[in-house]
Design a protein that fits this description.
This protein has about 240 residues and is mainly β. The chain has one domain. Strands 1-5-4-7-8 form a five-stranded antiparallel sheet, with no helix packed on it.
Length: about 240
């Protein structure tokens, strides 16, 4: 019985990856390659479940889809050097929870395949119609997702010292994880990396970016919420 169950789960996993999901029809300006690097202004830039030093395959990316009742997966892609950015949507109305493969019809494959997954990040969110109607963020990867992640990597862009706080609404406890400055040149779109252990995340968890701010002689804190969901460990 255990063997039959293992075979069934493995075949279900392969089915997710064998059928790549195509984007909704897009305008011609869904992606941009800049010859001159602009200045980035976003604070939440990427949420990944794996990063590494190998070059990416820019034709596909992978997302952990949790239980949802929404229609749209919105994908924002940013290269750390600020040269590439993209915004593209996918219909996931009938998509079951699990790990899924998405097609990226980029016209800049030759440029993007020179990047590693540390150099270009993905921010995916699920909502009803667009990025403005985000219900929650999910995690993505440039590589096939072969196991449940132990760490989620959150890329942010800020000159302030930042901490990701996990707050458990049921127990009232909280845990902070300091973000590390990226020690690399050309950190335009994002400049800090925050590592969050998934063992401390559950349905009662909320996340937010916390930044200490000094105004005159007073210390205050800015908070930027991250509504985030993972599939249950049995869905991967």
């Amino acid at each position: 019985m255990k063997f039959n169950l293992a075979v069934f789960l493995f075949l279900s996993y392969l089915t997710c990856f064998s059928q790549e999901i195509l984007p909704i029809s897009t305008d011609n300006d869904w992606e941009v390659w800049y010859d001159k690097v602009p200045v980035s202004g976003e604070i939440r830039v990427g949420i990944m479940n794996s990063i590494g030093d190998a070059n990416i395959n820019p034709s596909f990316f992978y997302v952990m889809i949790p239980n949802h009742s929404n229609n749209i997966l919105q994908c924002e892609i940013s290269s750390r050097d600020g040269r590439y950015e993209a915004s593209i949507s996918y219909n996931i109305e009938n998509l079951k929870p699990g790990n899924h493969k998405f097609s990226l019809p980029t016209q800049h494959k030759n440029e993007l395949k020179k990047y590693t997954s540390k150099d270009i990040t993905i921010l995916t969110s699920i909502g009803e119609t667009s990025l403005e109607n985000t219900a929650f963020y999910v995690s993505a990867s440039w590589d096939p997702i072969v196991k449940y992640p132990e760490i989620i990597y959150i890329y942010i862009n800020s000159e302030r010292k930042s901490t990701i706080v996990i707050q458990n609404l049921k127990s009232g406890t909280s845990q902070g994880y300091p973000c590390e400055k990226i020690q690399a040149t050309s950190s335009i779109a994002y400049n800090s990396l925050c590592k969050i252990p998934t063992k401390n995340l559950d349905l009662n968890s909320t996340l937010f970016i916390k930044q200490r701010v000094r105004k005159m002689n007073k210390i205050t804190y800015n908070r930027y919420p991250i509504t985030f969901k993972l599939p249950s460990n049995g869905d991967d």
